[in-house]
Amino acid sequence: MVGETFKPWQRESFYAIHVAHVCRYWKEIALNCPGLWVTPLFFSPGLLECMVARSRNLPITVSYRDTHTKHSPGLAAGVLDTVSSQMARIQSLELLELEGEFGRQILSRLTQPMHMLERMSLSFVKDVFESIPEGLLAGRTPSLKELYFECLYIRHWDKLPVGPGLTHLEIRYRENAGSEVELPSIDTLLQVLKLLPLLRVLSLAHCLPVPNLPEIPHQPVCPSLQRLCLEDWDEVMCIALEAVALPKARDIELRITYMDFEMEFLGMALDYLKAAWAEKTRLKVLEFDYAEADDGDFHLKFKMLSNDAELVTLSIPIPNSAYYIRPHPAYETDRLLTTIDDRVDFSSLAHLRLSGELAISLPRWKILSRCETLHTVSIAKAGVSDFVSALQGKFTVAGNENDRLPSFPGLSTLEFVEVDFEKAGMSDSIETRPATFRLQRALNGRPIGRRVSSLTVKRCKGFSKKDYSHLKWFVPKLAIQWDEYEAIAHIW
C-alpha cells in the first residue's frame, strides 16, 4: 500500500528497506519476497543495483524524476543502465522532468521492443522540446495500455508504438508549438485513432491539427472512448470542432488558452455536445467555479444527464481576461446561464453549485426557483444575498392560478461555505434586513412537505451564534451543521 501511495523519489517509499531492518526474522522474509523490490529507488547507485537484483525476474516499475542527475553522475549512469539492461522486465516506465544530455541519452535507449511494457510516461521540462527517436520501442509494444508524452515532438504520428490494446493516450505539446513544429494532418490523426478500438481516455494539448474544413465533418472514431480532453487556442479549437464531430464520450473537457471568453464559443461547444448525445440534453448538475486554478485559468464546469441516462461532463475553463472584463459577476453569470438555457433542458436540474467571485442576479434566481427537481444548492465564496431574497418568494403553477408553490419547491439541502452574509446583493438597495434574518423567515415560512431538511454553514462571516439559535428555535427539524466560525473568530 505504501509503495503504491508514494513515488520512488519520496523518502516515504523506503517501506521495503524498513521491513528488512525490523529484525532477522523479517529480514529473511523481505529478502525472500521479490515483490517488495519491484519498484527500485533512485537515491544511490548501490541501492538501485541491490533492489533490481532482489526483485529477481518479476516485472519492475521504473519511475524517476530527473532532478538530481546534474549533481550525481553515478546515479544518472545507474538509471541509464537500469533502463538498458532491464528492457525485458519493465512493466511501467515513468521518466519525468527530463532535460539536457541525460534526457537525450534516455531517449536513445528506447529503440528496442519492450514486450512487458504496459505503461510509459515521458515528460520533458517545458523549455525543452525534444523529438521522439526514430523507431521508438521498435514500434512493437504488444502489452502497452497507457502512453503519455509531454514536450516531446512527434515527427511521424503513424509510427507511434501503439497497438489495439491501448486504453489511454495523452500527448501534450507546449503552448505555441504549432509555430515551431509541423502538426499532424487530420487524416493522419484519425488513422492513428482508428487503430485503437479500446481507447477510453484521449487527451491532446496544443497538438491539434489545423485542417482545411471539409464539407461534412469527419465522423468520430474510438467507439470505447469515455473521456476526451482537448486543449488549445480558441481559433484552433473552433476549427478542430468544425472538422471532426465530438465523439460520444461520457466526460468531455475543452480547455481554452489565451482567449477573451465569448458566449459564442460556449454555445458552439454545447451545440456539438448535443449533436454527440441527443437533440435535447437534460441538465442534472450545474457547477460554476471562478476560483483561480493552478494554471491561472478560471474554470466553468457543468454536468449533464443525456437522454440515454449516462452522466456526462463538459468543462470549459475561462481565462483570466474574462474575469477582469466583466462589468459585474452576476451579469456574466446570467449570460452564461442564458446561453446554456437556450440549448439544454433545465427541467431535471437537481444540484446547483456556485463558487468563486460569482453572483447570480435576483431575476435569474427567480427563474431557477421554479425548478421543482432542484434539491441541493451549494454556494461557496460567492454572493448569497440575492439567493436568500429569491428563497422568500412563491410562484403560481402554470395552468393553475390557485396553486402557489414556495420558491425552490424541491429544495432539501443548503450548503454555504466561506460566504459573507453581511455583503449586499444587487437587489439590496431597498432591502435593509440582514441576509441571515431573511434566511430564517424563508426557511420557517415553507409549508410542511416542502421544508429544507439540511443546512451547512462553514467558515462564513455574518452568521452568529444568535442566528444559529434562532434557526434551531424557528425550524426545529432542520439539521444544522455549523462550525461556529464567527464565534471562534471573535475569540481570536
Automatic annotation (TrEMBL):
Species annotation: Ephemerocybe angulata
Protein name (database record): F-box domain-containing protein
Native organism taxonomy: Eukaryota, Fungi, Dikarya, Basidiomycota, Agaricomycotina
Top-rank taxon, per record: Eukaryota
Record-linked InterPro entries: LRR_dom_sf
